[in-house]
Specification:
The structure is a homodimer. In chain A, 70% of the residues lie in helices and 0% in strands. In chain A, helix 2 packs across helix 3, helix 5 crosses helix 6 and helix 5 runs antiparallel to helix 7. Chain A starts with a helix and ends with a helix. By secondary structure, chain A is mainly α. The interface between A and B is large, with 54 and 54 residues. Chain B binds a DNA duplex through loops.
Chain lengths: 214, 214
DNA sequence: CCTACCGATCGGTAGG
DNA sequence: CCTACCGATCGGTAGG
């Protein structure tokens, strides 16, 4: 009966943090993503974790602390993975790699992504400030690649930079609504996504043929 | 002191519904959009409307009924306005008109749009079914114009239709996060948006020059 | 639309 | 991590 707890305790010794705490955060991530922060009660989380509601407070200070941790580490994940994809020199290829990376992070845990994208509103003003700083850094990755592309001529120069970033990030973030959890983003999806973003919907056959030839 | 109520009562006579009910829905729209459905209490709404919590139930059956009304009429608005823009014959121009129309509906009431996009999750299964039907009809408008464009050659033929629709609608829906309420969508924003969606971010100078000449 | 109220649930705590 | 509990707030109702 207590086997799950025993396994947890074993893992517990190996790492620094309590494994129950890790489980709590995982469960909270799922529920905050599915039902939203105000729609999830401490009791909901406790029940799934398998402890009594009050016992949660042996591992966390309060409910908002869990939200902050999920949102903050969630953005960090995007910054790490997409940041690593933004080293590529050629802006066009860099943007493609960033799109694929962003989609892979969302697909790895869409519920976490949903919390990152929507539940930060329920943080206190002070905590929202922390989060906003990270979000701005993330947006900068995309702004930079578009600027670099405009400079070297591989990306469009005449477009409205702000709108371009909003369209790209908007369509990427919306993927959390339809990407199935755990599905490795297959080449097809990322490729199709990049095609729409990079080349748009309008037929531009001459440009493509020209590019293909040389 | 009771002047607001008197004015409401006067308006009340002119239309069918109670004006208090209309005010309630407006307030609920704002709060559901800003704080989410579970994060908004009946008491929050009542306080702003200026009546006591229990008095709300003279005008509605329950809290979810308000949500359903807001979501349902919200989607109807998109269907009407964007549907009217989808009569244009040329697919490229039609899509541009639809993008502009969608953005204008969001800008007219971003909070309502937020409720439409995110709060439908809190409806009962039965009510979600109603909503999903309308959402599908809305997505069909966009799928159709992309298909029509592929057929007549003005839009790209090789792209993944599903992904294309998701990218377009994703970026459009995300606009509710950044569009300021009441701002008429200026030509610049809608034009820039259409440019990114239609032509993409990749420089395609040859195609553009070719199109301009012919 | 108010008065007066209901049972249920909420986030959180003291003490072990 | 449990026992036992707190005050506050929740959606909603009967009767006027």
């Amino acid at each position: 009966m207590a086997d799950r707890r025993e396994v947890n305790d074993a893992l517990n010794a190996e790492r620094g943090g309590s494994s129950t705490r890790v489980t709590m955060i995982e469960v909270a991530t799922r529920l905050f993503g599915e039902r939203g922060y105000p729609g999830t009660s401490i009791r909901d989380i406790a029940e799934i974790v398998g402890i009594l509601p009050g016992s949660l407070y042996a591992h966390i200070g309060n409910k908002e602390e869990m939200l902050l941790e999920i949102v903050s580490s969630g953005i960090d994940r995007f910054l790490e993975v997409v940041g690593a994809s933004s080293r590529e020199a050629d802006p066009r290829e860099r943007l493609k790699a960033m799109i694929r990376a962003h989609l892979s992070v969302v697909a790895a845990n869409p519920q976490s992504a949903q919390v990152v994208f929507h539940q930060w509103r329920y943080l206190s003003e002070a905590n929202q400030l922390l989060v906003r700083k990270k979000r701005r850094a993330y947006e900068r990755l995309f702004r930079d690649v578009i600027i670099d592309g405009a400079v070297d001529g591989t990306l469009e120069t005449e477009l409205d930079l702000r709108i371009a970033v909003l369209v790209v990030l908007g369509s990427l973030n919306w993927s959390a609504e339809w990407l199935v959890a755990g599905s490795n983003v297959d080449d097809g999806t990322a490729e199709a996504f990049s095609n729409v973003i990079l080349d748009g919907l309008a037929a531009a056959k001459f440009a493509k043929e020209t590019r293909r030839r040389g």
